[in-house]
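User: Hey, my collaborator sent me this sequence without any context and asked if I could get a structure. I don't really work with proteins. Can you help?
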Amino acid sequence: MRTPKTIDVLFRSPRRGRGFWFSVAIDLIWVLIALTTRLRWHGKENLPREGGVLVASNHLSMVDPIPVTAFVLAGRRIPRYLAMAELWKAPVVKWVLAGGKHIPVERGSIRAVQALHGMVDAVGAGECVVVFPEGGIGRQADHWPEPKVKNGIARVALESKAPVVPVAIWGSHELLPADTKKVKLWPRKTIQVVAGPPVDLTDLYDSPRTKTTLDEATKRIMAAITEQLATIRG
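Assistant: No problem. I've predicted the 3D structure and written it out in C-alpha cell form, which is a compact way to encode the shape of the chain:
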C-alpha cells in the first residue's frame, strides 16, 4: 500500500469512540509509521464490521500494536488492548489508555484474572479486543509463534462466544528487533498484516471448561495464526 493511500485510510477510519488522547496517538504514530515503512495488509473482510470480536496475533516486536491498529482501523473497527496496570499511573499514557477503553492487566498478581473478565465484558459490549496470546514477544529463533501459550484467550473466546480472527504480522521485527531498542529505519522496511477467517470453536462452546477443552481451543487459535503467517512467509 503506497504511503499516500495509507495516510488516506487513516482519515477515513472510524474516529468516534477512540477517546481524545488515543485518537491523537493514532494520528501521530500512524503518519510516522506510514512515512518510514511500507504497510501492507490483507484480509480485513474477515474482521466483522460490528459486534464483539477477538483479534489474535503473533508478536514479533514492540511496534506490533501500531500496524495491527492500522489494520483494525482499516477494517472500520477500533482496537482495545491489554496493557500493564502500572501504565495507568504514567503521565499522558494513562489518558491514552483510559480514553481508549483499554484493559489493565496486573501481571504477576492473583488479580491478573480480572483482565479476562474485562475482555469478556468488552466483547460483550461489542468491542474489538486485540490479544497477543504469546503474552510477550516470541523468542523462537525462526520467528514462528511460540509452540505453547497460556489459555487466556481460549477462556475468553469460549465464555463470550465471540469470533476469534487470527492475524499474522511480519516485518516488524526488522524495524525494531526484540533484542534491541534501536529502530532500524534504513533500508525502508515492509510490514505485512494478514487476517484469516474466524477460528471455528463452536463445537467447544458447551463443553466443560477443562484443561483439555481450553488446550484444544488454544491449539486451534495458534494454528490459525501460524497458517496466516505461512501465507506471508511462503
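In plain terms: Strands lie at 37-42, 53-57, 79-84, 103-105, 128-131, 164-170, 189-195. You can pass these C-alpha cells on to your collaborator as they are.
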